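idk why but the lab printer keeps eating my pages so im just putting this in chat instead. protein + calcium ion:
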Amino acid sequence: MPKRIAAIVVFLIASLTAVLPLRAETLTATSPDGAITLTVSDDGGLAIYAVSHGDKSVIAPSKLGMLFRDHHGFDRDLAITGSQTATHDATWEQPWGERRFVRDHHNELAVTFAAQTGPARSITVRFRVFDTGLGFRYELTEQEAFTSEINIMDELTQFGVGAESKAWYTPSDEFNRYEYIYRTGRAGDVDDAHTPVTFRNPAGVHISIHEAALVNYSGMSLEALRQGNFEARLRPGSDGIRVKTSAPFNTPWRTIQIAPDAAGLINSDIILNLNEPNKLGDVSWVEPGKYIGIWWAMHINERTWGNDGIHGATNEETKRYIDFAAEHGFAGVLVEGWNIGWDGDWFNNGALFNFTEAYADFDLEELGRYARSKGVRIIGHHETSGDVSNYESQMEAAFDLYQSVGVAQVKTGYVADAGDISRVDENGITQFEWHDSQFMVGHHLRAVEAAAKRQISINAHEPVKDTGLRRTYPNWMTREGARGMEFNAWGTPPNPTSHISTLAFTRMLAGPMDYTPGIFDLKPNERPPVREDMPRGDPSNRPQTTLAKQLALYVVLYSPLQMAADLPENYEQRMDAFQFIKDVPADWQESIALAGEVGEYVAIARQERGGDEWFLGAVTDGTPRIVEVPTDFLEAGKSYTAQFYVDGADAHWDTNPYDIVIESRDVTGGEALSLHLASSGGAAIRFIPASE
Ligand code: NOJ
Ligand code: CA
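predcted complex ->
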């Protein structure tokens, strides 16, 4: 080669290597059982990852990256400059939960991508691969390129699940926050979705995308880029900035649960394992339990929150509920509408709520004392109607007051349209925020920490979604964040027959839900109105389930605070069925999803915490079916007395919802049970070991 040409070639190679690595680097990690393979590369100067399960693709090669307003970002011209691996296998204990011991077994791969153009800078993506899926997060260390405040404008994380996967999702940008009937369809037809969102790809692999440990960041939803390829979209704050932070920082974990069958999605602890351990120390004061409340009466127009003649939260009515709770072994009585601010249009008047002043017909101190004298606690209620500044200005005093009267759990509420949380900023100007904005992520933790100082636990309604923070803050016990039972009183349409068997494989993967099960009067809007100006709702608004399915919800829908939502007088009509609600625990030693298909049916078994009894709940959608469940969860060959609460032969949610068979018979551990579930029916079973 002539010298000049050789020099040019050397120059070209040298300048090319400065911009792009000549050969892309590809790194891999697998799950401990070897079934899941992750590959990470810098092919073409892009940060790319892909995931497969066995020989089936789960996530097609998808991009990673992040853009900032005032700094050079991580988008292109990237090269892998370092990596580290580790293996972790340890078991930790939950103070309360769906299982007591949680195994965290994963292989870790941390990959550092350095920018090859512009200011020197790098970002690390840490992956953890478990047998049931993987999580990864971005880690930005302290470095010269990032000394000032960082405004994140976009996270470029992509999830290529494929256009032909089937999706179960709720839209992420509509007014009703997370409270939607689940939509089903081709992933290629989904525009945007809240997480957790569930997919089943054409090869039959089940996938759930969500996030873990959402702290000091904004919530992630998925937005379609091209058909079936989604990008993480971070909820912007009122100023348009998606996340304000500074280096060093870690993002929440982006999680991809993977299972060959639907039940496998439920039998995964990825979300909890990716959260930090308990920060609160001794949390023996956090008490799981069941409760009743002055609640459904308002939703079916039998009583009111405000003070207008049929006020629900009166001394007399509260004592009636406390007496009923004491008689039937409930730990708590929720009282809504006790404090000033409910009169008139409370939905739009959050500024009027006073969190320390009770209505004249409600004596908080006396009722707190009365409840404790009966071994029951009042459960507090703070509805904010989304005026978070009004709430924060009173929050400490409000928790002090509740602590002084023995309240150990508070239900909070953020009823406001999505994007309408109001906040007064440092200049006194009112700004509007989303329920999953960085501001609200911060607010919830401020509330949880203020409550923890007073040994109070939180059950948030209209919350930000659950990302497993109960591990770090065990007093953040449960929340709503999906369509709950209330929609069956006034929602048009009510929750469809497929709702529960969809929730089990979607929303419930995030964590516990205060669905408020146990409605026994299944046609509440057919009762005569209590007052002319308070008409009942549309009679077609009603729980679309059989009575047995209402019982099964106590096992299927996990919540450490579990409500018996109906009126005491309705339970008094059906004490035989009510017995199951009295017997079922709210805290578990172990939980196992036995069978199911997303949106169709599900069967779950759970063992009581600190005892040998097992409980089984199974529900179906509108299609009646026989579900075969092996009782392998019981001790093999051991004899149990099983109390069955199952649909009668003619049961049907619409035409014959009360047809229930309640009977006891012996079951041997390992024996297969064949459960007949009626249209939108269910089965609830208690297994008591025969005494030796
Ligand atoms: C909506 C909550 O989900 C419901 O449980 C509560 O009764 C009302 N808000 C009033 O706070
Ligand atoms: Ca709600």
